[in-house]
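In the laboratory, one determines a bound structure by crystallizing the protein with its ligand and collecting diffraction data. In a computational setting the workflow is compressed into a single prediction: the sequence and the ligand go in, and a structural description comes out. We illustrate the idea with nicotinamide-adenine-dinucleotide.
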Amino acid sequence: MAIVGIDNDMRRYFFGDEASTAKTQQDLGKLQVYNHEVLDIRDWDGVNALFKKFGFAVGAVIHTAAQPSHDWAAKEPLTDFGVNALGTMHLLEATRLHAPDATFIFTSTNKVYGDRPNTLPLVEKETRWEIAKNHAYHARGIDEEMSIDASKHSIFGASKVAADVMVQEYGRYFGMKTAVFRGGCLTGPAHAGAELHGFLAYLMKCTVTGKPYNVFGYKGKQVRDNIHSHDLVEAFWQFMKAPRVGEVYNIGGSRHSNCSMLEAIKLCEEISGKKLEWTYKEDNRVGDHIWWISDVSKFQSHYPEWKYKYGLREILEEIHKACVSAA
Ligand SMILES: NC(=O)c1ccc[n+]([C@@H]2O[C@H](COP(=O)([O-])OP(=O)(O)OC[C@H]3O[C@@H](n4cnc5c(N)ncnc54)[C@H](O)[C@@H]3O)[C@@H](O)[C@H]2O)c1
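The predicted complex, in structure-token form:
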């Protein structure tokens, strides 16, 4: 088995040196099965040539390359769309031409639902916003039936919608084994957290290093569900073992692993034994979700072997360890 990783460290261009993924690339380079290609997924000739080289030997394509920030996208909409939409199109088309039997997994985002989740009936609690108890989403979170249409997505959300729908279409139209995983917060100890992206990783980094942190709007009570990269990769693995065609799944920490900003700060302080220096800014980020918890029961019903290994505390403990050893 061989693994080819495509990454041009564009994350460094988006968010600066501290967000570079070069270290992960170096670490992966120590694995014998891993081969790195510094390639821009916007470069059709390069992508096409690489897929042509491996052709039918490609068993699966796991596409996680992106401009991943809501806020950054508005700075350079053309770059955002080029990476997220056109880049995805290139990978899909190269797969169709050279490895049409391969499984194609795409990491989409809950931002494809735009700000529609903010129209849900929310109740203010002491440390978090919560959905009303009698609402259908209370028990398990938001499912895939929520409309992705007619809401404010942000430029990033819209470029991911384009990619998300195209990945579905290559399944439905061409019969390819494609899956869209719409992520809540995806994280882990190797996440290169930056202010504009990678909330838990950046929060812990600031707590450990004493760097000031800004909380934007919603009284710091906005809720996110958080999944460890291990559990996400395990979900991909389950899908790869028994792929389906043109599927869409919400994936995240669900009711199992979630927190508000205030709760996350408290937990970071508890684990690190340090006080976070943070400032509250009244204005929320445009279109930012107030409450998001992913309902993962559709995925669980298709892949009942999939189980969470990590809860919120374990995720933060691992991130803490990584921050301490990097400091
Ligand atoms: N982290 C989250 O909370 C979260 C939430 C929902 C969805 N997602 C999605 O999951 C995926 C992975 O997210 P992440 O947090 O690991 O982001 P990340 O920025 O850490 O990883 C994306 C990688 O893509 C690379 N890349 C960017 N543009 C490229 C290009 N043109 N060519 C080649 N490589 C390029 C970057 O250098 C980076 O290493 C993305 O699709 C993102 O939208 C992430």
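The two ends are 35 Å apart (CA to CA). Keep in mind that any predicted model is a hypothesis to be tested, not a measurement.
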